[in-house]
Structure formats: C-alpha cells, structure tokens
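RETRY 2/3 - previous attempt timed out on the joint model. Re-submitting the same 637-residue input unchanged.
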Amino acid sequence: MNDFDNAVEVHNLTKRFGGFTAVDGIDFVIPRGEIFGLLGPNGAGKTTTIRMLCGLMLPNAGSATVLGFDVTRRPEEVKKRIGYMSQKFSLYNDLTALENIDFYAAIYGVPDTERAARVSRLIEMSGLKGFEREPTHTLSGAWRQRLALACAIVHNPPMLFLDEATAGVDPVSRREFWDLIYTLAGEGVSVLATTHYMDEADYCNVIGMMYQGELIALASPDKIKQELPGVLIQVDCDRPGEASEMLQELAEVRSISVHGAQVHVTLKDAKEMRKIEKALSLADIDVHSVESVEPSLEDAFIAMVAQRRSQNSQLPEQHVN
Amino acid sequence: MDIAIKTEGLTKRYPSQKNTAAIREIDLEIPRGILFGLVGPDGAGKTTILRILSSVMEPSSGKAWIAGFDTHAQAEAIRKRIGYMPQNFSLYPDLSVRENLDFFADIQQVPTVDKKKRIAEMLAFTHLADIDDRRAGKLSGGMKKKLALACAMVHGPQVLILDEPSTGVDPVSRRELWVILARVVQEGVTVLVSTPYMDEAERCHQVGMLYQGRLLTAGSPDEIVTALPFEIVEVKARPRKRMRQIVAETDDVLDWHPVGDRLRVVVSGNGTTGRTIRSLERQFKANKLEISILRPARRTMEDAFVHLVKGQREQA
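RETRY 2/3 succeeded.
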C-alpha cells in the first residue's frame, strides 16, 4: 500500500482548453477522513478539477496526487481506488437495484467470495431494502441517488468524488444522503464534493470556492463567514425593491440582496447603519427594523467575487452588472 | 383581496404515468402584486402547474384562472396578460440582444408606437443596454436569463410566470435577478416563480411548498416558520463524538442532524429552549467539552419543508 498523509494533494494544477483557462493554478490538500467541498457556479472549473483528479484528463501544468498516486503518471492506480458519483448517475435503468450494485461490484473486481455480503450490506446501508428487486427506472430521484452512491462505493474506495450529487433532490433525502456521507467519513473515507448550492457547502469540513478557474477562498465554512469583509445587516422596510435600488447607489453599501420584505445590505462598518436608515427615511420609505445577521456562504461568496472583480477592474469585464 | 392567480383541485396525469399524478388537487390563491414562490425538488410538479397556468397545457381535472380568466376556456385572453419564461426559454442565438427583444415584441403584438420605448425600458431594467448589439449566443448564463426575462415581459404582462429562472445561474447573477424581480413586483406585476432552492423561498412574499405533486403548505415564509412545532439550537463543541452523545441524551431534544462541524438540534420549543440550552451547557462543561457555539438558530424554510415531508411520509 502506498503511504500518504493526505488523500489528495494538489499543486498549481492548471488546465487549458485552447485559449481558455478552465483551472488556473490551484492548490489544496484533503487530509484523510475529511469532507472537502469544491464550490462555485457552473463553469468555475469544478468538474474539470475532478476529472483531472480521477485520472480522466491530463493537466497542462502542476501536479496532483490521490491516495499517494500521481494522477498524471499512474492514473490507473487512482481509478481503481476511488469512487465517483456524478449528477448524471450512470445506472442501468432496466436492471434492478440489486443487479446494478452487483454489476458495479463485478466491474471493480470485488472477489466473488465477498460480493454477496458487500452487496447486501450496501442495500441495508442505503435504505434500499424492500426496493432492491424493483427495476431502477421505477425508483424516484432520491432512491436512484442512494443507489448511485451504493454503486460508487461497492469496492470500498478510500476516496470518494461526488460531482453535483445532490442537485434537485428534496431536502429530506439530501439530509439523509449527507448522513451516509458522514458515516463513510467516520470510517476514514475522504470525500471531495462539488456543489453549486451554497447552503450545502455548510456540510463540508473545508471548502474551496472556485470562480473563473481560480480558488478564491479555502477554509472552513465558519471561518469563511467570519472573515467576510464588512458587516451584513437586514433591513425590514416598505417597498424593498425600490429601497434596494436606492441603497445600491450609496458609497457605504458593498452589496445588496432582496429577501421578500427584507433587504440584506453589506456595509464596510456597523457604524454606517445610521446612514442607511437616514437615506431610507429621506426617500420616504418606512423602516421597521435594522439588525445585523450572520452571513451565509452565498453572502461570503458574493463579497469575494465583488472584491476579485474590483481588483481585476483593469481587465475586460465578462459579466455586466 | 384582489386575486391574480387561482387554482381549484388542479390535477394532471400524464399518459406515461399510469398510477401517479404529476400534480394532485392543487388549490392556490395568489393575491395581485406579490412575488410568489413555488418551491420543491425536481419532479415535485412545479413545471406542470406553471404550464397549465400559462395555458400551454390542459389539466386532467380542476380549474385555473388568471386575472379572472379561465386558463382553458379563455386561453387567448390569458396569453395577452401573462409573460411565461419556461426553463429553456428559446432565445435566437444568432440574433443580437436588441433583435431578440424586437422579435418577441412583434410576436406579442406590441404596437409599433410603443415598441421602441418598451424595448429601451427592458434593456435598462435588465442592465443589458450596453451590450444590446451582442449576439444572444455569446452571452453568459446569467445574461441569457436576464434577456429571456426581458423578452418574456416586453409586452407588459400583468402576471409573470418564471420556471426556475435561477437554476444554472451563478450566485452573483442569481442575486441580481432577485433584485430585478423585486423591482418588477414594485411595478405592480404579480410574479410566480418556481425554484428547487429552499433558501430562495425566503426571498418571496408567499410560498407554496410542493412535494410529489401535492401542496404541503402555502403562506408567507414567516407564517410557515412560525407554525413549526419546534425550535432549533445550533451547537458546536469538541470533541464532536461526546457532543453528539450528550445531545442525544438531553431531554427535550427531538432530533438533530450534523451540518459540517455544527449540530442543528431540534428541540420542543414552547418557551423551554432556554432551559434546554442551559442543560446542554451544564453537561458540556461537566464533561469538559470546548464549546464554540451554543445558541438558538433561525428556523429555515428547509426545516419547514423537511418537517412537512416527514409528516406526509408518516401518514402514508
């Protein structure tokens, strides 16, 4: 067995497609048994990163090891030892749940002597008992998701990649899915999960936020929220749409978002709250309450992107605000 | 109260699904001038409801009205009054931003005298004026959604129906989109939007939660959360394993689930949350745990959804 301290080590990993840099020199490590979340909008480079780590795509520069194996030089060793589950679960719809797991067990070379026991344990663990003889196409999205996870871990991989694995699944199933992931992590499995649901990233121990191929933040969810520059305040007022448009123009306001009857405003300093109230009252908008609130990861992400854009303001802007 | 959208017993069965209806007995009343969110996971029936309301599909049974017009019997009247943006709104990739708007204005028979002004308004509104000559195919995902939104409302509809406008849009553009929608509502338009994101439900004035074709509940986010028979306490302490054991053994703890390093603990509430927190604190301290978070947490729309779905499952 290969010796390694970190399940994944990534140094200056870069991938270019023609003139487009999909992944731009990123660095991170995933210690054994940790759940690492790679977060960012579509097109940020998450899937390209996963593909390189799974040995499916070669980087243009930099290096990466998974379970101690270099993904460029020994991709076959990597592929054997990892589990991979993508948003488009590759299940055989005409087979039953049991047959699907059994099929993946055969592909991954699970020894015949262990196969039956392993398959029945996975049926048990994923809560598919009672449904195991149903054809897969009759299962709901949430059941298919559990089945896909069971298939991805049938060979007991010490490293699991989840690519947008919970997209579109109902919140109850999503929580149950994460319970399974925590169980696996508790057994020492390391996990890299990508998601564009910002709230889901709270489930991870450490998150890396990607934007336009770069890693713009790397820390625990709590730390990322704490280090959000400025303070987030919630303003409960009349005509929130109008209020938000007006506040957007103020120099003190870094960013703004509307939540039903409330407006969330990021300020540089809590002292500027007064100015907000004053501006609103001048515009004849009734303010019911102003209080500071804990930022979400989405708030943090948006603040970081805004910062990044203003740093790069000399460059041609891709998105227009 | 002025009702913009109403449904009664709305039910749809697709021929391919023999036993299960896509939506069952949906009763909704949406007042005029609000932002209403239809929230639920994939396959819950959101798109089916929006298609029926936009009169592009008929229900199997039940009825729906927009601004008092029957969506089935008076489809022509409906189409003039609504703007409908399906999930994959077909923009013309070879046409420019302005040409797309021009095209949709013609389809919707916007009078020539109004057209120029209306298009200019839409461009300003969606912040696309500076790039009005760019081809739609060259736009980013977020900009495409904004252009689709502009096209869907170029004829000045009373009711705007948007199917998952924020799916696949980056968080920055997503936020911008919600600011635009708030502004649309300000203008007096009723907006019905579907989303699989629970956190977006909190941005709506009223919400209908949909699961497996059924409406779990409807109301303002505040009403929905206030009706929950429990409260949430957020806990983070080390070592984690011991923290979980203590939480599990504490009276008044109904359930808990891990979110990263934190535990979200469901407690019975009814004014006893403070007592539960104190009892947790005592136990943590007696066991020499290092406490970093121990406080009441806001109940979210996801908490409400999970609670209602579990209730429905137990009934089944």
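Chain B touches chain A through 54 residues (CB under 8 Å). Closing ticket.
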